[in-house]
Each structure stands twice: as structure tokens, then as C-alpha cells.
Amino acid sequence: MQSIAAPIVSAELRRRFVSSTRVFVLTGAGVSAESGVPTFRGGGDSAVWKGLPFEVLSSIEMLQRDLPAVWEWFDYRRNLLGILEPNPAHYELGRWQHRFPEFTLVTQNIDGLHQQAGSQRVIELHGNIWRARCISCHWCHEISVDTDRPEACLQCGDRLRPDVVLFGELLPQGALERAAEKASQSQLCFVVGTSALVYPAAGLPEIAKAAGAFVCEVNPERTPLSDLCDEVLTGKAGEVLPLIGM
Ligand code: OAD
Questions:
Q1: Label partner for 4 (CA 20 to 30 A): which of 61, 86, 144, 217?
Q2: Is there an atom of ligand 1 within 6 Å of 34 CB?
Q3: Best substitution site from 39, 45, 106, 221 to test ligand 1's pocket, by max atoms within 8 Å of Cβ?
Q4: Cα separation values, 27 from 11, 137, 191, Å
Q5: Tens of pLDDT, residues 65-119
Q6: How far is the C-alpha of 138 from the C-alpha of 210, rounded, in Å?
């Protein structure tokens, strides 16, 4: 990809960044791209694995048909992620949570890199690859980089599955509702590194906009949400986000 000159942050956005108290951020795979995580629609390693597209591997049908294959796929992805580090975009968003009285970070990513960079109370719309969940009692088990994941639920002994949202599944209970409420109360909304093709996540900036928030997109490419945005900063999240608060 050709390198893009750093975008100019408007005086209007800077003014709003200083004066806003309720800030909402939605992130997608692009925020982790500079850490080395392949995006879904960028044709990277996570698009197709062993001949199967990710929509098939990461589906509820696959889970019902072949749970070990689903684990094999998520174990593979977790192993790739285990050696990766947060990038300047994750760290910048980690700083923003201390900057605004009400700051909400909503992510579609399952990689845990926001938390690794210090972000707290992240609303995870699609779950987290570093957790396993019991298919019966729903008990969640953290998976660490260093230890093997448990084979069965330590509470009830039933099978575990990745605690991620698969195609054909609903979002975790309450996560979307909390995110939508925060979006509807926000004054300033950032949409960072998402193709904005997957709903309901892509609807959150629309909720913010309808409620009167100033909406800013950060992405090297245009998306279906670009026209709705008040400002589009064309560039990589790790380069652009640190410019906004300068
Ligand atoms: P996509 O792969 O659809 O889109 C990634 C976006 O990031 C694209 O718009 C890229 O232009 C942009 N991008 C690439 N590099 C970037 C960078 N350095 N800085 C900023 N942006 C960059 O990923 P998502 O929109 O996150 O769901 O996909 C949404 C959901 O689709 C995923 O959570 C996943 C998938 O199906 C589930 O698995 C349930």
C-alpha cells in the first residue's frame, strides 16, 4: 500500500476533543493491523484457513458440527496473537479513558490488545479469544499465553467453546444495549479501523450521529459510514489517533 501523508485534523475536531465530556469509540480489526493482526476483509491469514473461509470456520453451524475443528482454528489464531503487542493506537485509546469524564470503548476485536494496552471496561461486542466458555453452564475460563487451555469446564465438566461470537449467533447479552446507550449519550464519536459492514456494530455511529454527536472516522480507506461522518481522517490508526489530542 502507498504511504499516505498524515491527514490534517480540523480545528473543529480539536475544539470538540478539548470540550467534550462524553466520548465514544468503536474499533474494528484495522486498529490492530499495525500490531500484525490480519484484518478480515484485507485478504490476510485469517480470511481463509485450510481451504475454509473464516465465515464458515467461525460459524454456529461449524460449532454444532465439529467443535474440535473450531477449537483448532481458534487455537491457531490465539497462537498467532500471543506474540503480538499493542500498537500506538491501542495505547492512545488507553490514555483517552483518563482524559474524558465519560469514555466508552467498544470493540469488535477479540484479540484483547486494547486491554493489554491498559484500556478498562472495554465493551467487547464479539467476545474475546482469550476466554473459553462452557456450553452448558456458561462459566468462563481465562486462557493464558503460557498454559494449555482447559479441556472441559472446571465447574460442570461439560465441553468448552471459544467465548467469541460466531456467525449466526447473537451478541453477548447486554453488550450491544450498553454500547447503544453510550453511543446515544455521546458528544464525540470515533469510528476506527472498521469496514462498517457488519451490523449491529456498524449501527452504533449512526446512533451517535442521530443523537447529535460529531462523528469522526479514522481509516486508510473509505467505508459505507464515511458519508455520515463529520470528519474523515484518512490514514492508519496508530499514526492518526495520536495526532488528534496533540
Ligand atoms: P474488516 O476486516 O472488515 O475491516 C478492517 C478495516 O480496517 C478496513 O476498513 C480497513 O480499511 C481498515 N484498516 C486497515 N488497516 C488499518 C489501520 N492501520 N488503521 C485503521 N484502519 C485500518 O474488519 P472489521 O470491520 O473489524 O466479526 O470486521 C467486523 C467484523 O467482521 C469482525 O469483528 C468479525 C468479522 O466478521 C466476527 O467475527 C463476529
A1: 86
A2: yes
A3: 39
A4: 23, 30, 6
A5: 999 999 999 999 999 999 999 999 999 999 999 999 999 999 999 999 999 999 9
A6: 36
